[in-house]
Amino acid sequence: MFKPFIFILLLILMLSACSSHSPIPTINKNLSNVVLAGTINQRNKQMKQLLHWSISGKIAFIKKQNKKRQSANLKWSYQLSDKNSVTHHFLQQQIDLTTFLGINLLHVDSNNNKHTIKVDGKTYQGENLNTMIYQLTGLRLPTQALTFWLKGIAYTKNDLLSYQKNAPLPLTLQSNFYQQQWLITYDKFKLFNGYQLPTKLTIKQADLTIKIAINQWSIL
Fold first, then answer.
1. Is the Cα dihedral 204, 179, 53, 194 positive or negative?
2. Tens of pLDDT along 15-60?
3. 72 and which of 21, 97, 143, 172 could share a cystine (Cβ 3.0–4.6 Å)?
4. Domain range 38-219, CATH architecture
5. Which tens digits make up the pLDDT trace of 134-174?
């Protein structure tokens, strides 16, 4: 008459033993309260609304023809704000390229279309930032388009993107800037403040290769 009771007791003990060895699920605190864009369109919309950011990392300019390589630390702060109306925006940005010893190679301070550049202790002002940087330093840095490419979105409606199979993240981006064809390859992404953002990308145009490694994205 006690066999059913003994059987039930043994069953309870076995279940308790199994549960004590089962792994306890953990919560990644870094992913709490994070909403990731689930589709390509959702991510593109999210990135287009990201208008206040800063990055820090490294940048390298490599010329295939003469095998010349120039490397620097990179800091870039970008803010595009509405001014008085929705259709008019006010741009503020600062770009710094420094040597690994902390010597400043290039400083850019932009207020709308007025750009101030400091190189070799001298200050220059103008309206075409990309041309100024090239004339003063010899570096081809497509800053206007890069504010889009850095986030992994198209600069113009004719840009072509390819995406990862299992995530709405770009693999490559082909873009036309200043009547030149550029190819951007995205090697790595990381989560920052709820945004999946590139941390390693390679940009190619003719014999020029630009490599950017981003250590930190800050959402301002």
1. negative
2. 444 443 333 333 333 333 334 557 999 999 999 999 999 999 999 9
3. 97
4. Clam (2.50)
5. 999 999 999 999 999 999 999 999 999 999 998 999 999 99
Q: Can you say whether the dihedral through the CA atoms of 64, 69, 73, 79 is positive or negative? A: negative
At 86, the amino acid letter reads: V
Structure tokens at 25: 């699920």
Query: CB–CB of 60/210 below 8 Å?
Result: yes
Assign 3-class secondary structure to the chain.
CCHHHHHHHHHHHHHHHHHHHCCCCCCCHHHCCCCCCCCHHHHHHHHHCCCEEEEEEEEEEEECCCCEEEEEEEEEEEEEEEECEEEEEEEEEEEEEECCCCCEEEEEEEECCEEEEEECCEEEEECCHHHHHHHHHCCCCCHHHHHHHCCCCCCCCCCEEEECCCCCCEEEEEEEECCEEEEEEEEEEEEECCEEEEEEEEEEECCEEEEEEEEEEEEC
Paired residues of 162 in beta bridges:
172
Retrieve residue 50's tokens: 């990201």
Q: 35 with 43: CB under 8 angstroms?
A: no
Which two tokens mark 92? 């503020």
Six-digit token string for 16: 């308790």
Q: What is the pLDDT of residues 77-136, one digit of tens each?
A: 999 986 554 455 789 999 999 999 999 999 999 999 899 999 999 999 999 999 999 999
The owner of tokens 């953990």 is: 26
Q: Can you give the pLDDT at residue 27? A: 30
